[in-house]
Design brief:
The structure holds two protein chains of two kinds. Chain A is mainly alpha-helical. Chain A has one domain. Chain A contains three helices and no strands. Chain B is an all-alpha fold. Chain B folds into two domains: 245 residues, Cytochrome Bc1 Complex, Chain C, CATH 1.20.810; 142 residues, no CATH class. Chain B is 73% helix and 0% strand. Chain B has 18 helices and no strands. Chain B is globular, with a radius of gyration of 25 Å. Classes of the chains: A mainly alpha, B mainly alpha.
């Protein structure tokens, strides 16, 4: 499997888990506004990275490692913060 | 694709977020003076995620205004308003005014002492306009029924009239974009890769835009979660009498102009005319700047004017924030605003001249190099000036108030800043020397040594 497909696959898994977790917890009304914002931000950020990888891959342009590293670091920070908020 | 090409699209995304969050709040908000504050308080305290929703709505409104301004200034600097896109600029400017109208009308709705007092000051200024004009505007936005009509009119404007007008203008602008296409980059280089290849709107461009929108949305969500709003007290005439009204940040520059002593009392119409003139010049800019070139390097006068405009807005807004209710002396205003204009003008001129000798046949070969030089100059000038002022201030504090830990610490910090500026200046000059050749040659170009080019 190509590395870009692996990145996109991983991001889609992160996105799906964050979305399912967020809606399940919200259903039981135990999620704070901060937690809700973090899970939604995780979803949106993963989507932004997927879009970035997808478009650049399609246009044949090289991926900027800095954006991937920065986005992944952001996702990790948000996932760790979610432990506190949930 | 450059994200800065998408500032307009992100403004629309902010508008959509505003629409969704606003529609949810409409379910609970009651536009009656006796109930406006309590219904807002209900959203804050009782509605699930209500406070978060209010915060997202406000911060996205701020982002929308900032993005619209950045979109306009970027368009100005790269000269997108030139033929055949003159009317696109005019429509865009009207959309900008409507966006400010959203800010003005929405600010009143929570009916807090902060919002009502500031809005009353704004409405009061309308009376300084010619009577026919002021009567018409007052009838439109306030009516004749006091607070109740005022709030209802503002609410109607905010949730019905302005969104409808903005949507019509947006449709018009999209139609013009379809007819004229996107303005090519003014660098003289080939068009952006995406445009050159004629990428399809779906899925390529759509995905790219959605990715940017997702990043913007996540930033808004996180900022709203980290810095939640707190509701100021309810408006009452008694409380308002003890309160110094101050507008929101996007109107602070107008507020500060109106506080200059020469514009007090009988001078108010002059100040309002001046502010109106700024808006009119921006509106008719495509018909004023008729030059054919769009390259930044060939438009030093317009670029410098644009930089001065942005710098003055920032200075006025910050000054207004720091001096609520204080009348500003005319001499002080001339010094500060004139000094800002001269400083920015000199830096811009220096950046252009420094770039002049970089290429053999170019007046201004690289915008990035010029920007780097200008930023370096401004930072060093600002750092040096702050260091000198701060250290002098600390010295005076030390002599007047005696040697305390905080005074000595402040003096050490200020001297540290000053000492840091010196090696940084040397480093900056060294980097210019190594990058652009002999400094002697540079100074000759600046007319410092010989007085000739």
């Amino acid at each position: 499997m190509k590395p870009t497909n692996q990145i996109v696959g991983l991001l889609l898994v992160v996105q799906a888990v964050a979305a399912i977790y967020m809606w399940v917890v919200t259903l039981f009304a135990t999620l704070s506004a901060g937690g809700f914002a973090i899970f939604l931000a995780i979803d949106l950020l993963s989507f932004a990275l997927v879009a970035y990888v997808y478009t650049h891959e399609k246009w044949g342009e090289p991926l900027n490692r800095a954006w991937i590293v920065l986005g992944s670091a952001g996702l990790i920070i948000l996932l760790l913060s979610s432990l506190y908020f949930s | 694709m450059n994200p800065f090409y998408w500032l307009g699209a992100l403004t629309v995304v902010a508008f959509l977020i505003q629409g969704v969050s606003g529609m949810i709040m409409m379910l609970y908000y009651i536009p009656i003076p006796n109930a406006a504050f309590s219904s807002t308080q209900y959203i804050f305290q009782t509605v699930y995620f209500g406070r978060f929703l209010e915060t997202v709505h406000l911060y996205t409104a701020y982002a929308m205004i900032m993005l619209a301004f950045m979109h306009m200034m970027r368009g100005y600097f790269v000269s997108v308003q030139k033929k055949p896109r003159e009317m696109m600029w005019v429509v865009g400017m009207v959309m900008g005014f409507v966006t400010l109208g959203f800010g003005f009308t929405g600010y009143l709705l929570p009916w807090t002492v902060v919002s009502k007092s500031a809005t009353d000051v704004g409405i009061g200024m309308i009376s300084a306009l010619p009577s026919v004009l002021s009567s018409a505007i007052m009838f439109l936005i306030v009516g004749a029924g006091g607070d109740a009509t005022e709030l209802l009119r503002f609410y109607d404007l905010h949730v019905v009239v302005l969104p409808a007008v903005l949507l019509v203008l947006l449709t018009l602008k999209m139609y013009m974009l379809e007819v004229h296409g996107i303005a090519q980059p003014p660098t003289g280089q080939p068009p952006d890769a995406g445009e050159a290849r004629g990428l399809p709107i779906f899925p390529d461009v759509t995905f790219y835009l959605l990715g940017l929108a997702a990043m913007f949305g996540s930033a808004m969500l996180l900022i709203s979660a980290v810095f939640p709003l707190s509701l100021p007290p309810e408006y009452t005439p008694q409380l308002a009498a003890q309160f110094t009204p101050q507008p929101d940040w996007y109107f602070l520059w107008i507020y500060q102009i109106l506080k200059i002593s020469v514009f007090e009392g009988a001078g108010l119409p002059v100040a309002l005319s001046l502010v109106t003139l700024v808006f009119v010049v921006l509106l008719v800019l495509p018909f004023v700047d008729r030059g054919r070139t769009r390259k930044i390097r060939d438009r030093p006068a317009y670029v410098t004017l644009g930089l001065i405009f942005v710098a003055e807005l920032i200075v006025l807004a910050y000054w207004g924030l720091e001096s609520p209710g204080q009348i500003i002396g005319t001499e002080e205003a001339v010094l500060v605003l004139g000094g800002t204009a001269i400083l920015v003008g000199v830096v811009s001129w220096a950046a252009y001249r420094f770039q002049a000798g970089r290429g053999e046949d170019h007046a201004f070969p690289r915008a990035k190099g010029a920007l780097r030089t200008a930023v370096g100059f401004v930072s060093l000038l600002a750092g040096g000036a702050t260091g000198i002022g701060w250290s002098l201030n600390s010295l005076v504090h030390l002599f007047v108030m005696g040697a305390s830990f905080s005074n000595v610490f402040e003096l050490i910090l200020s001297c540290g800043l000053l000492m840091a500026v010196v090696p940084l200046t040397v480093l900056f000059l060294y980097s210019l020397e190594s990058r652009y050749g002999s400094l002697k040659r540079r100074f000759r170009i600046l007319d410092i040594e010989s007085g000739n080019k």
